[in-house]
Amino acid sequence: MKLNELFPGQPGIEIKNLTDDSRVQKPSSVFFCIKGYESDGHLYTKQAIENGAVAVVYSESLEEKDAKTVYIHVNDVTAEMNRAAALFNGYPSRNMYIAGVTGTNGKSTIASIYRSVLDQYEPTGYIGTIAIEYGSVKRPPLLTSPDAISLQSILHDMKEAGMKGCALECSSIGLDQGRLDAVDFDAAAFTNLTYDHLDYHKNMRNYFHAKKKLFDSLKKDAVAVTNIDDPYGTRITEDCVCPVFTYGIKNNADYQAVSIRLEKDRTFFTLVYKDKNYSVETNLRAMFNVYNVLADIALLHEKGLPLEEILPALKNLPAVAGRMHMIDQGQPFNIVCDFAHTPDGIEKVCHYAQTLTPAGKHIIAVTGSAGKRDTAKRPVFGQILSKYCDEIVLTEDDPRDADPAEIAQEIASGITGSHYQIVIPREDAIACAVNLAQPHDTVIIIGKGDEKFMYKGEGKVPYCGDDTAAEKALKEKGYGE
Question: How many CB atoms lie within 10 A of CB 319?
């Protein structure tokens, strides 16, 4: 594509790449000077040019300019980057059915279920925290919501591979930073809003409005789906110009679950829709997954799939990686791995563990908290864990350049009435918890799920994943092959 096609009035030089990362070699590229949370692209134009940029899009004054480079001054670099990325990739989301999912918890599960069910009828992709998946392609995740250039490129690849739609996780930070502004959404679902990311958003009002941005952007012929039981559920859709459909358990909803029966490995409930009752059975466990299933039923049904086809598909859903993953190698106690990293998410996992664990038996938790992230929630983690757990093993969880022992002590400051210990190497901490477990106890491993990396001071380093670490510890204890 020519530069003058992306930016009318500019020279007709060939453009092969778009980038906002000055460190990466991108021949014949346009470099966008994005002011990020921790850095400002305006400071790195020289590096970008050395790595192949032939044009620079900027909004603030630059200290120096290269005579051979085209400089394009704009008022809003983020808006121009979104526009250019969509144009450069042929506006892929306009030719796909895009369903966005936002909220504090449940995004990955809802988006994964949506994709797995709809993919049986029409080729559908997924972009989120777990992975980037479409057809036979499975790539490691970028951010929950990738930057605009990467996102438009991924959607282009999906469209070229024959995908008719995509389930897209929409993070509050991604929405706030405008990474999804050029995506043409056909549907959006809201899960819940609880304490998270306040190191970035500063307060719940800002956090809420970042999420609400998704629904405010929906076109008239789109569909909004919202959790009516959440205090923010109706507020988030109040300015929608498209139809809004509700789901819930406690309040009357368009899609409501009643007569819920939770079992160790299955969940049963009655779906009430337009005064008709439908029996629902799913292999997903715990009350919060009833909400996730309801959201998917609403999204899929409002897209046009009959309930009679949706509901049978929920009986044996593929496991959602790192979410409520039961580790079973024949041991006489429960092990649950979950990605939870918010107070609400941790409490839900703890509550589920409580339903699994007979009276008089112990709940043993392994967890940590990320470095360079919201520190105020650390003692809150300790308070929640001590409410449910008998033994707590505090460990590292993406410490970055922070001291994991100090992070553990901050969590411990909220612990009362429970025994805790600090074991920094995460694999050792998981092995410690497994070795503490007695018959009918429950071990909950919280934070990393199946992630195969850990952020430390030296950057992103390999990590086996909580599931693999638990399986290894069980094997060493004599369970499994």
Answer: 13
Q: What is the pLDDT of residue 37?
A: 63
How do residues 134-153 score in pLDDT, each as one tens digit? 999 999 887 777 889 999 99
- CB neighbours of residue 307 within 10 Å: 17
* Nearest CA among 258, 302, 300, 292 for reference residue 278: 258
Give the Cα separation of 189 and 104 in Å (integer): 12
> Which residues fall within 8 angstroms of residue 449, CB to CB, at 6 or more apart?
321, 322, 323, 325, 337, 338, 339, 465, 466, 467
β-bridge mates for residue 132, sequence order = 127, 139
pLDDT score recorded for residue 201: 62
119 Cβ neighbours under 8 A, 6+ residues apart: none
pLDDT recorded at residue 198: 57
| pLDDT tens digits along 70-79 | 999 999 999 9
Of 472, 475, 341, the closest CA to residue 411 belongs to 341
Of residues 236, 320, 329, 331, the one with CA closest to residue 286? 320
The pLDDT assigned to 476 comes to 93
- Residue ranges of E strands in 103-222: 124-127, 132-134, 137-139, 165-169, 187-190
Nearest C-alpha neighbor of 385 from the set 354, 427, 425? 354
Span 240-265, pLDDT tens digits? 999 999 999 999 999 999 999 998 78
Pairing state between β 70-73 and 97-102: unpaired
Q: Does residue 195 have a pLDDT over 70?
A: no
Q: 């995460």: which residue's tokens?
A: 426
**Sorting pLDDT into bands at 50, 70 and 90, what band is 194?**
confident
- Residue closest to 302 by CA, chosen among 322, 270, 273: 273
Say what angle helices 377-388 and 343-356 make with each other, to 10 degrees.
10
Q: Could you give phi then psi for residue 218, rounded to 5 degrees?
A: -65, 140
102, 175 in Cβ contact below 8 A?
yes
> What is the Cα–Cα distance from 372 to 354, expressed in whole angstroms?
31
| Contact between residue 247 and residue 291 where contact means Cβ atoms under 8 Å apart | yes
Phi, psi at 247, each rounded to 5°: -135, 155
Residue 138 exposed, middle or buried by CB count within 10 Å (0-12, 13-18, 19+): exposed
Q: How many H helices and E strands in the chain?
A: 15, 23
Task: Give residue 199's pLDDT.
Answer: 62
75 φ, ψ (degrees, to nearest 5): -80, -35
Q: For residues 478 and 194, which has the higher predicted lDDT (pLDDT)? A: 478
**Can you give the pLDDT at residue 294?**
98
Contact 409, 424 (CB under 8 A): no
